[in-house]
């Protein structure tokens, strides 16, 4: 394992020190417990938006804290969901009197820790949006359900904009749930990743194999196959996504091609060309796009695709200004 | 039988031994979790129990219930993942059941375990057979409830937990991260059931004789 | 070799197709020859800014085309400098009557191709800024001289802003040269990269080795050593940079921690914490920072550090709005 | 001696053979360039000569000078890197020297090579001994200048280029990308000198007999 870290134990704290040094004018970083908070929080009368999850998915979530997106993020250890005391502390720090929205990715650990936190948040109205957009996972009573992946970034951006408009907690939460309902994702990997603490790759892949349907913690996917051209990879991911919602001809969509952390941008651009082609074949109108590393798995090579069926409200919220280290426009 | 019983000091010793087990078996638990999860269970539990031992040293709680609650809160605020809330709930509910009690007998201790297990099930919604820590804890609590004395009961409970742990191997996971694997989760022992067995084994070492 | 591409021959064309699909409203992409051009070019009365170089360093340069930065970029094949006809075509496309600045990284191929292009650009006044900020290379008559690396991104941003203010070609070029003179960089690699056409890693590194002083095409560095903590890596890079200019106590700097393409952001944040510490030890005031993948080497893991001694003019130009796929603020 | 000489058809044949050499030795040149450069020399030259053959087919130039200029322009606009401008300049200047000439004799041909080499040196500023294509071209042009007939001259020029190519191995690079390696560039044969040898070898095959 070769990594630019000081020690596996210190990687989260050190990276937060880096964020403090880099963005200390805009973000307040606390270390006990770990929280990344908008410097001007709480914003009076605004719904506070708190997200969180294991580290190793940067820029998500800490990189999305700032005007127009999150009020606070709670980073856990690498690939380990954060703890209730973090969420409690973040929730209290961003409570501007209009309630606080928790954005939670559907993983057992995240769900339980956020649940405990919500139970502890007396005096603050809390609503939760659970993201579960990963079509690679069978959604049934006999599993932990679908994982929350790429759509989480879109929910954070869109709810962030709605909260800036001073919409009510209920409205922001409903919008977030609608985004989750209308978004679908699927990912794939060319290579595994290695958490600093384990020191070993999360799985093994042959030199010519890819894993289709992978999760963002190196969870295995639907199947493995010999690597084909980008056009084939795009079809493997777009097929299940398009079937699942289903998306239909004429739909306006946001297309999000996400890198898993170790994929060069030139490859993401090649993938986007294929996604645009397949979307056009299905009669979809790509109104907006997002291409880059936004929800990653350490140094994993691969990508995920997210499609969101947009409505006017989502579109306007997407376009609204955002000013965070990881996503910035109009500001 | 002997002078060992569930009191403040033996409960602290139990937690100390559990912390030691988590440190020693950290890599084993990481490997089990790498096979069907995300490879952090050993690191999580080790980090949590270290923190718990610090907190115990700082706050010096006065009875078994307080000891367990202190450990529970430390785990909740330092483990994260699925194991943090689950072990936190287990020990918190046991601690609540033992609040202000000392020199606890087997009936009371078994009832505390039952309350803890109920908490785990309420939090995680896993049933026996779902390939989770519940598969080690359920038979262990049952054995303790059947026991007439603490020593024998703990030994039987630990044996039941061990069997429950081994029995997770062929199962298909239906809760937690391992459930994403579907059929491919079969053939691997559950990490959480394994750490739960160590919790019982530590109890034998500290509380039985 | 596992890559998200259709074929080694088509990777540059396919990625440009992706850019066209994604940013076609803002960028004009030509395929014969390859150019990425601001949709509203030429901007009348504004100095046109053209950069270019081999592909594989994305987002540089195509991702930096847009208001406030480049008017056009010429992407070559992967790690191969572009050809004079591309630069000629780009230069003509962005000539708004105030002349055109060529920003050229100091590599033999880039220099010669841009030279030939400049010779062919009859009717357009052309100035060239050559970047050569890589302190890992001995600068002597007996080498090709220092390589142009991280400072190139800063020159492009700052000259882009100056050109938007309608400064003259000479002024913009002088500012660009001053940025280059006052900027220094050094990079390192944890792993090599593989060009699509060769299919083999550019070099081999042992499991516990890093290469210090690497170039952005996998050119070997000053030395190899066993990997140490991030603090040590940062010292290896900051030492030669700080000595070279030299930077002195009280200087205001821009600190740029760049990922080589395969490095997770969490590691860049850890590196930034170390850079900030070392800078503070030297009495430098970090006034601005840039952290992320901006000048990459395909999927190489590693990072580079660039320090720029800022003056007021550079600072103002840095802060000016920029609206490109790869760098965006104030717009 | 024979009927083969430097005319339109033999010049086209020369370029065709060079294109073939570049295709065949593509991987070898890539590997040489991987050792001391960035691994693209084979791909670059192969891509360029394919493009040149297309252009020759399209435009059917009428004399050796025009053939070489067509190839030169194709190389300049498709090779990139260091080799594009250098081979482009070499062939462009040779083409200029041979403009509107046909059935070229050895003296004229040698002079054309000299002009090409001068162009390469003016463009790239490399001296013999800098470990570049100049190390293969310089002795080759010299041999041609000493020759009394084309056939013998070409054979000797190719031999000289080959020796020049081999002689680059121990050298420390002082130009181009390989110069970044400093002392470590010694022990590797220069890729550009190697492709230059193939250019001479193709000339022997097409123009001598
Ligand atoms: N819903 C659940 N109920 C009971 N136990 C569970 C549940 N989900 C997971 N577990 C237990 O948690 C263990 C994994 O813990 P850990 O690896 O620390 O958390 P995570 O899965 O979040 O990484 C599993 O082996 C399993 O025994
Ligand atoms: N300044 C120079 N003068 C002459 N030849 C040079 C010079 N620089 C490089 N070369 C030649 O170019 C060859 C490399 O070509 P190529 O790999 O295609 O370009 P690049 O180095 O840009 O990748 C070297 O092997 C060397 O022979
Ligand atoms: Mg985990
Ligand atoms: Mg785990
Ligand atoms: Mg090259
Ligand atoms: Mg080369």
Architecture blueprint of SSEs:
The complex is a heterotetramer, with two copies of chain A (331 residues) and two copies of chain B (209 residues).
Chain A: H1 11-23, E1 27-31, E2 34-38, E3 48-55, E4 72-78, H2 84-94, E5 100-105, H3 108-120, E6 126-131, H4 151-164, H5 169-181, E7 183-189, E8 209-212, E9 223-226, H6 230-244, E10 252-259, H7 265-281, E11 285-292, E12 302-309, H8 312-319, E13 322-323, E14 328-329
Parallel strand pairs in A: 3-4, 3-5, 5-6, 10-11
Antiparallel strand pairs in A: 1-2, 2-4, 7-8, 7-12, 8-9, 10-12, 13-14
Chain B: H1 8-24, H2 26-36, H3 41-59, H4 64-76, H5 83-97, H6 106-124, H7 134-146, H8 150-167, H9 191-207
Task: Describe this structure as you would to a colleague.
The complex is a heterotetramer, with 2 copies of chain A (331 residues) and 2 copies of chain B (209 residues). Chain A has helices at 11-23, 84-94, 108-120, 151-164, 169-181, 230-244, 265-281, 312-319, and strands at 27-31, 34-38, 48-55, 72-78, 100-105, 126-131, 183-189, 209-212, 223-226, 252-259, 285-292, 302-309, 322-323, 328-329. A 6-stranded mixed beta sheet of chain A has the order 1-2-4-3-5-6, sandwiched between helices. Chain A has a 6-stranded mixed beta sheet with strand order 9-8-7-12-10-11. Chain A has 8 helices and 14 strands. Chain B has 209 residues and is mainly alpha-helical. Chain B has helices spanning 8-24, 26-36, 41-59, 64-76, 83-97, 106-124, 134-146, 150-167, 191-207. Chains A and C meet through helix 1, helix 6, helix 7, strand 11 and strand 14 of A and helix 1, helix 6, helix 7, strand 11 and strand 14 of C.
């Amino acid at each position: 394992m070769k990594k630019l870290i000081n020690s596996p134990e210190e990687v989260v704290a050190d990276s937060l020190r880096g964020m403090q040094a880099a963005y200390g004018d805009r973000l307040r970083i606390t270390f006990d417990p770990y929280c990344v908070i908008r410097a001007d929080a709480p914003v009076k009368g605004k719904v506070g938006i708190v997200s969180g999850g294991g580290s190793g998915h940067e820029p998500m979530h800490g990189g999305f804290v700032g005007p127009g997106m999150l009020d606070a993020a709670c980073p856990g250890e690498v690939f380990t969901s954060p703890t209730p005391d973090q969420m409690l502390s973040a929730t209290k720090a961003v409570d501007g009197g209009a309630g606080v929205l928790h954005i939670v990715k559907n993983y057992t650990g995240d769900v339980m820790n956020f649940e405990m936190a919500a139970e502890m948040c007396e005096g603050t109205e809390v609503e939760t949006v659970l993201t579960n957009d990963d079509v690679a996972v069978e959604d049934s009573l006999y599993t932990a359900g679908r994982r929350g992946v790429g759509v989480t970034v879109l929910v954070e951006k869109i709810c962030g904009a709605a909260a800036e408009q001073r919409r009510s907690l209920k409205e922001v939460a409903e919008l977030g749930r609608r985004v989750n309902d209308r978004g679908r994702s699927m990912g794939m990997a060319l290579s595994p990743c290695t958490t600093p603490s384990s020191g070993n790759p999360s799985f093994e892949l042959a030199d010519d194999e890819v894993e289709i349907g992978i999760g963002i913690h190196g969870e295995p996917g639907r199947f493995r196959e010999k690597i084909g051209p980008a056009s084939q990879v795009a079809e493997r991911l777009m097929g299940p996504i398009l079937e699942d919602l289903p998306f239909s001809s004429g739909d306006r969509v946001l297309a999000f091609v996400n890198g898993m952390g170790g994929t060069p941008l030139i490859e993401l651009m090649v993938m986007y060309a294929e996604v645009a082609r397949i979307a056009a074949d299905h009669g979809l109108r790509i109104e907006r796009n997002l291409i880059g590393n936004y929800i990653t798995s350490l140094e994993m090579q691969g990508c995920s695709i997210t499609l969101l069926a947009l409505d006017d409200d989502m579109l306007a919220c997407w376009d609204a200004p955002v000013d965070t280290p990881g996503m910035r426009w109009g500001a | 039988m002997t002078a060992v019983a569930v009191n403040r000091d033996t409960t602290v010793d139990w937690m100390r031994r559990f912390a030691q087990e988590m440190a020693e078996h950290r890599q084993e638990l990481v490997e089990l979790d790498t096979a069907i999860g995300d490879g952090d269970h050993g690191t999580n539990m080790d980090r949590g129990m270290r923190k718990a031992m610090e907190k115990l040293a700082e706050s010096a709680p006065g009875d078994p219930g307080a000891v367990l609650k202190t450990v529970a809160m430390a785990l909740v605020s330092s483990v994260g993942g699925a194991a943090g809330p689950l072990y936190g709930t287990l020990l918190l509910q046991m601690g609540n059941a033992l609040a202000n009690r000392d020199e606890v007998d087997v009936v009371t201790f078994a009832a505390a375990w039952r309350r803890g297990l109920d908490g785990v099930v309420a939090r995680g919604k896993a049933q026996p057979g779902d390939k989770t820590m519940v598969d080690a804890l359920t038979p262990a609590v049952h054995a303790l409830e059947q026991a007439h004395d603490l020593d024998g009961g703990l030994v039987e409970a630990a044996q039941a937990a061990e069997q429950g742990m081994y029995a997770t191997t062929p199962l298909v996971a239906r809760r937690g991260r391992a459930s994403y694997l579907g059929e491919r989760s079969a053939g691997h022992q559950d990490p959480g059931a394994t750490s739960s067995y160590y919790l019982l084994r530590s109890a034998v070492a500290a509380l039985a004789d």
